[in-house]
Structure formats: C-alpha cells, structure tokens
Amino acid sequence: MFSVKEAQNKILGCSIKIKTADVPILDSLGMVLAEDVISKDNIPVCDNSAMDGYAVRADDIKGADIEHPVSLILLDEDLPAGRVPSLKINPGYCMSIMTGAPIPDSCDAVVMKEDTKKNVSDILVFKECLKGENIRYRGEDIKKKDMVLKKGVRIFPADIGVMASLGKSRVLVNRPPLVGIIPTGDELLEIEKDLEMGRVRDSNSYSLSAQLAEIGIKHIRYGIIKDKKKILRKKISKALSECDILLVSGGVSVGDYDFVKETLIDIGAELVFWRVNQKPGKPLVFLTYRDKFIFGLPGNPVSVMVCFEMYVRPLIMRIMGNKDLFRPAVHARASHDFKNRKGRTSFARVVIKKKDSKYFFTSTGMQGSGILTSMVKADGIAVFPEDAGNIRKGSEVEVFLLKE
Ligand code: AMP
Ligand code: MG
C-alpha cells in the first residue's frame, strides 16, 4: 500500500502532454497563458486629460491662488472624451476638457474644474499647476511592443481587462482537461427523489461537480450507474472516449459489488496504484488509459471530497500548467488533543482560527467518512502524518485552506 506522498508522486509523475487551445478571453479566467501577450498599441494612444477641467499652459497660471486668481479666455471649443482638438492653446487661453479627452497642442497641464470659476467667456483659476499635472501621457500604461503578460502565468480578471484594452479578443491557453463524473452504487437515488429504506441520494457527483467548477473545470455528468459490470463497462468506455480525466465514485473497495477496478482493468486501463495508507479514502485507485487518467474514488462522501483535494485537484492544476498544485497551506497548532491512530496519514476536517499571527485548529466534530457535514463546517484539512499518533494540544501540523 502506498503512502500519501508516494501516491501523490505517482500521480504527478505521470507524463502529461499539455495541450493548448485558442479561446475567447472571457473563457480564459483561471487558465494558464500559453503565449506571451505583446501590445501592438500605445495605451493610452495619446496624451489625455486625467480630470474634468480646463486645458491650460502651466506658465499662464503660475502663482494663482485663492487671493490671486488668474483669468484665462475660454476658447469656443470643448473637448469631451473621444473628440480630437482642432485649436491650440495660445498664451492666456484655455479650453474646457473632460476626462480622457486628447490634450490640445501647446497645452501642458489640466486644471481641475473644482479649482476654477467659470464666467461667460473666461475662467478664474485659483490654483497653479505643475507642467504635466493631470495629464496622462501616451503609452504611460503600456508601450507599443511591451510584453504585457508572460506565457505561463495564471489569468486573473485584470489580465482579461488588459487583453480587452489591447484589442485581443482571443488568447492561447493551456487547455484544461474535460472531466467525466460517474457515481456508482445500487443504493443511489437521484437527488429529487424521496429517501427510502437503505437508499442514499447521490451527493458525490454534486460535490465533485462543484469542486471542479471552483477551479473552472468543465465536466460531464454521466448519471448514476448500478453496480453491474456490463453497464459499468459501457458507461466507462463512453466516458473515456469523451473525457481526459474520469472520476468514478464508489465501488473500489473490497465489497462483493465493488467492480470498478476490475472493470477498468478489463477495458485496458493500467493500474498505477490501489489503496493508500490514509484515512479517509484508503481504497482510492488510480489508473491510466492511453493519455487519460482515471480515479476510482471511495464512495464515502468525505473520502470523495478529500481525495479530490489531495490527488485530483493537484493533477488538474498540473495539466493546466499551474505552478502551485496544492491549496495554500499554513502551519497551525492543535487547540485540543486529537485521538489519532499511528501508522497512517489522517486528514482531519478542522476550523482554523488566527490569534496573534498564529493559526490554531479545532476539530469540526465527528470525523467519520460518511459525515459530510464535517466538510461543510471545515475551513481546512489538517494533515496528521503517518508517524504522528495522537495529536497533543499545541502540536503543529500542516493545514490546507479550503476557503478564502
Ligand atoms: P462504496 O465505496 O461503493 O463501498 O460506498 C461507500 C459508501 O459511500 C456507502 O455508504 C455508499 O452508500 C456511499 N456512497 C457511494 N456513492 C455515493 C454517492 N454518489 N453519494 C453519496 N454517497 C455515496
Ligand atoms: Mg458501492
């Protein structure tokens, strides 16, 4: 049986062909850039006003203050954003100008409207301006031929904004994998159905869908599959023909109706490992099929989610080309004793509190792998290492942060 580290290394050590895709920029959020983004323009395209006010010559209003306002003649042209000026500013003159409007010739400052008083054909200026004040210069944000975004970075909302400002409507990204979800189990019910004796609503496919959605991964839900080899085989084959990664939940343990592993091997998938020395999620199975990856996730709702966090998510992050494969983690101290069996890694669901710049964690309560509310309450997963045994109050361990 593999340790957690060995299992993670096996998964992340698989050879991966990163594929690229040309997508509309709005679809690229959270993906990794597969090209350098270089500007073909100066942004802004010309010197323009940063304020609503008056375009002036700074020399004309030198020394202006409340007691000694300077009067300037107002030219009969005003400049809303987008209009190109036709007049230039001669000494003693000014022009009304709005934020974003191009700066007229011979003007070297914009005085804010708030520092002026307008009469019919002239204005009084109550404050002097430095040369260049309230002017945004051509190319001051981005210069033509600047590399604005570098290949390999993750795309955030501002990056999409900047690509839009550069006139780039599509962008080359590392193509995220398409993931298929197959919940298995004779006892499973569609979530709309009333519970009956012995039945369980299929929550796993929903938790997994949401975990994928959280990292912007598209997926196909294949619906509940009974514990029947033939049906399983058909559905898995179909999913493998459509997806890059397959997440099967349930049916990977040693029960009489656990057929997932052998069905996958029958189809021709290659077993990388089965069972990991961990709690929850011990029966986890991982296989490859051509260039595809298959996780057989233990059906217990907490196991599914924890295995996703510890194994599936990092692989997806790697395929997407991310550098950070795991959730952010902190070192935190136990707020109380935790009973813990030595000899296997435990993933405890915990609540994290920060006190005097130190992190502390408390159990969410019952830690059974069927207690899905332990995940609901958790804002972190604390990792108790294989050799730890009982965790004493004050002991420090690594805690992965699930929520911002
Ligand atoms: P298995 O791994 O198939 O032995 O299932 C382990 C436990 O997880 C059983 O109690 C199942 O009823 C439960 N389980 C399996 N699949 C799901 C699912 N999709 N949603 C919720 N619980 C499930
Ligand atoms: Mg089952």
Question: Which key phrases capture this entry?
Answer:
elongated; 19% helix; binds adenosine monophosphate; alpha/beta; binds magnesium ion; 404 residues
Short note summarizing the structure:
This protein has helices at residues 4-12, 157-165, 204-214, 229-242, 260-267, 301-319, 373-377, and strands at residues 20-24, 37-38, 48-49, 53-56, 70-79, 93-97, 109-112, 116-118, 122-125, 135-136, 147-149, 170-174, 179-183, 188-189, 200-201, 219-221, 245-249, 270-274, 278-279, 285-289, 292-297, 329-334, 345-355, 358-363, 380-384, 396-401.
What can you tell me about this protein's structure?
With 404 residues, this protein is an alpha/beta fold. Helix content is 19%, strand content 29%. It is built from 7 helices and 26 strands. The protein has helices at 4-12, 157-165, 204-214, 229-242, 260-267, 301-319, 373-377, and strands spanning 20-24, 37-38, 48-49, 53-56, 70-79, 93-97, 109-112, 116-118, 122-125, 135-136, 147-149, 170-174, 179-183, 188-189, 200-201, 219-221, 245-249, 270-274, 278-279, 285-289, 292-297, 329-334, 345-355, 358-363, 380-384, 396-401. The strands form 7 sheets. It has a 6-stranded mixed β-sheet with strand order 7-4-6-5-9-8, with no helix packed on it. Strands 16-13-17-21-20-18 form a 6-stranded mixed β-sheet, with helices on both faces. A 5-stranded mixed beta barrel has the order 22-24-23-25-26. Strand 8 and strand 9 form a beta hairpin. Helix 1 packs parallel to helix 6 (301-319) and helix 3 runs parallel beside helix 6. The longest helix has 19 residues, at 301-319. The protein is elongated, with a radius of gyration of 31 Å. Bound molecules: adenosine monophosphate and magnesium ion. The site of adenosine monophosphate has 18 residues, from helix 3.
